[in-house]
Predict the structure.
Amino acid sequence: MVDVVACSDGIKVSRPAARRLERHGIPLRTEPIVAFEGTDGVLSKIRFESGTDLDREGLFFSTGCQQASDLSQRLRCKRDEKGGVVTDPATEETSVPGVYVAGDVSRDVLLVAVAIAEGAKAAAAINKAFLRRDGFCE
Ligand SMILES: Cc1cc2nc3c(=O)[nH]c(=O)nc-3n(C[C@H](O)[C@H](O)[C@H](O)COP(=O)(O)OP(=O)(O)OC[C@H]3O[C@@H](n4cnc5c(N)ncnc54)[C@H](O)[C@@H]3O)c2cc1C
């Protein structure tokens, strides 16, 4: 049997998310967490502000993410509901002609390999745009 508990550390969980957890038989603890306890770097217990403990052997966590710079906003690049810059997937060009982005700023898949690939695609598209501007290609 899988023994998984979801902890939101004091953050309110949306009703659809709570319902999904319930459907899968995963208990939800919403109290703030005050400490992780263990020995030699191995987790044994989660301590909650409510004064209760939860014995655990492992933990997966999500840090969330947000853009550190508001440059894309100032340039008026179109953004999606998550705040990611919307790009043309073929060229990585944004809604503002001549502005290209790569990496987490587009909030597509947040991986180093994807950021590198998007950078390469953007570079190729920028080079092509210059060649087109200078009459070297269609
Ligand atoms: C905890 C964690 C674990 C991860 N683990 C993995 C993993 O195992 N494998 C994997 O592939 N990916 C992993 N990622 C995702 C990966 O780190 C990112 O997808 C990748 O770094 C994106 O590259 P980027 O260049 O878009 O952004 P970043 O690497 O975040 O680079 C942005 C840079 O811009 C700088 N900056 C921000 N604002 C300004 C400003 N105003 N002026 C000047 N500079 C500025 C920042 O200091 C930073 O150096 C992880 C991310 C996190 C947070």
